Amino acid sequence: MKPTPIKPTPIRPGSALAAEFWEQGRSASCPVINIHAHPGPVYSGYMPNCRPADMVRELRKVGGRLMCVAPHSALFAPEIGNAEAESIVEEFPQEIRAYMTINPQYPELMLRDLAGFDKKRHIYVGFKLLPDYHRVRLSDRRYQAVFEFADERGLPVISHTYANSPYNGEAEVEKVVARYSGLKFIMAHCLKANWRAAAAIARQYPHAYLDLTAVSGQWGAVDYLCTHAGSEKMLFGTDSPWYGLHQAIGQLLSADITDDDIHNILHRNAERLLNLTDSEG
Amino acid sequence: MRFFDVNCFIGLPTVAIQKPVKTAGELLERMDRAGIEKALVWHVCQRDYAVAEGNRLLAEAIAPHKDCLTGCWAVLPNQWGELPPPQEFCEQMVKANVKALRVFPGMHNFLLRQETLGPMLEVMVKRRIPLILPITGEVGWPAAFDLLRTYPKLRCILSNVNTCGTERQYAPLLAGYSHVYLEMSEFILDGGIEAVTARFGAEKLLFGTGFPRRGHGGAMLALQHAAISAAEKAAIAAGNLETLLNWE
Ligand SMILES: [Zn+2]
Q1: DSSP characters for B20-44?
Q2: Labelling B24: which of A72, A269, B103, B175 has CA 20 to 30 A away?
Q3: pLDDT per residue over B55-75, tens digit each?
Q4: A140 φ, ψ to 5°?
Q5: Quick one: pLDDT at residue A77?
Q6: How distant is the Cα of A213 from the closest Cα of chain B, in angstroms?
Q7: Main-chain phi, psi angles of A10, to 5 degrees
Q8: Cα B120 vs. chain centroid, distance in angstroms?
Q9: Count of A-B CB contacts under 8 Å
Q10: CATH superfamily, with its number, for domain B4-244
Q11: How far B28 CA sits from the closest chain A CA (Å)?
């Protein structure tokens, strides 16, 4: 009797990890951590999955363990500020942690929030900065208080980064990572699309990390960053509810890197960065 | 699931991308690896170099692969006779296994409207030939709206529709015209497949990857696990496009 030919796994033939994601939508050995998400509605477009409960449902679908969020309200409505972030984490303490969003346009609100941070470590994992939108340069002295705060405590700071931006471009990012080596600086969007500069910074500075949000879709970018910075410096993010989790994982599975690299990106590095114990894989 | 990719290209772009795919053979190798059965393919020289030359290069490249590669040519206004007249152009399409057209009004410096492309568009409406509109950086939304107002029966595929706040742009076109379709290569909205299917119907979505600028896996895995029926998935993955290209 002839053996039944093994059906090759779509997207990434020969990969057990891809086979699991293809068949079940998730992998038992890969508890995904999404380090970049924004619950709630936002001015720019319609987002069907923007409620926190929808986002948690989507995270569970991919076998996700955790997502770190900065609600749109914290990014764009200073009068609401971080209040919604706190209530969302309290509603979903298993699956959600928040970044404290800093809008240096309002220094008094920033100082008030910073003063409360240490008592809310069960809610916050670090800070979220959005310089392009808040129109303040990373090197502006108004950001200094948060960098010093994070630096003393070794906390993650995730910042929007884009190539050629006067607020969060290559030069601004480099100034911050060169000055503060105690904090962990996460380059959201990897200085899109200056992969070369992003990889160089991540390689040079041990405390600089690459967040693949809106990057993994560019075929070849993940391979480049992996070769030039190493998969140990790369983190998985999706900007959910903007972009879907399965499409982002599918793009990662399309990269010409190893399954081990994909494990690093999808969960292992974030587990280390966020000091999550009892790693499941 | 059988996949038929509505949006991929071959050739070396003037401005390099990370991992270009130069030949039809290389494209087929990557499609095979990913598990994609067929593709509607264009040649980057159609956009970056010269339309007629690019169309010829594409026809040559796909000729040996008729069972899995279908062509998509670019088209121009014809006031200067740069391309054969519409009927003759269509006959050449049929011979070359080219089943759809696309336009690059940005790069190619023309207005996409009746005064420029009218005779060709009238033939396309009559023969049900689909037109692919690369929205981002080429056609833009106002031109797409104006075109459909003039040619409401034109089969149009909205392509390269990125997800940074375009939901309010494409929705009126999907709602208002029965022959407008959305291709998925840059449509990566969280819950987007389910939302478009529920509101406008699965017949409005076409599987596309944007390969090799984008990878194959994103649209594939998103569709595989979308919360819609198996029949709807099959239609989006291949069926809708097969129907659209069957105009001869
Ligand atoms: Zn973001």
Answers
A1: ---SHHHHHHHHHHHT--EEEEEET
A2: B103
A3: 999 999 999 999 999 999 999
A4: -65, 145
A5: 98
A6: 12
A7: -60, 160
A8: 17
A9: 126
A10: Metal-dependent hydrolases (3.20.20.140)
A11: 14
